[in-house]
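Tutorial, part two.
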Amino acid sequence: MHVIPFALVLGATAAATQLFAGCPCPPQAASKHLLISTGSGPASGFVACGYEDARSQVTIRSSELEVFRCDNGTRILAFDALQTADLTDVGADLAVVRVSRWPFGKHWSWVFVPVAETMLGSTSTSPRWKPRLPRPELTDAEVRHFVSVYSAKVRRLGRSYAPDENTVGQLFAAMASGDRKAARLFQSMRRDVNLDGAAGELYAVAVAEYALGRPPN
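Running the prediction step on this input gives:
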């Protein structure tokens, strides 16, 4: 018979207790599903409530969530269904990392990457975001080839060119890699081509997340 060491059981129990310590979701929360609650009781820490995407021992990935102070029920954060965050209990504090899926992986693979992070502490009344958007794992040759192909289509087709969501994501990744021509093309994308429907929505998200995820020059 396989026996689980007592230390592992104790550690797992402590981790579970830490995740659910503190206060419950307040009456004003849109969702009563408790994601994580920090602190040692109802008068300290924070509680996050919403839709759970994934859970590890210390971090919970969630979308469509709200974060409240336990002491007075003030809502500190609210993410909609299109926004995702990783939540981690740090004592009575709550670390929140906004993450998003972009083609930042090798060979343009779509992966979750951090966009910005904040630490909610005892004096927090609103989040103060720190940029976290990384450089994509793309080679210079991959970026140059994409930019060359995309710019040629823009010159040839102009406003009749309607790029798809993948192209929007790749141009965003090319810009985030530091390519200056990609940055110029991204900034003029709405004028250069026909951005409609889902591609236009993704472009708006990319603009907002680049502003949040990269510090100003």
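Strands lie at 34-37, 46-55, 59-69, 75-78, 84-90, 93-102, 111-120, 130-131. In part three we will examine how such features are distributed along the chain.
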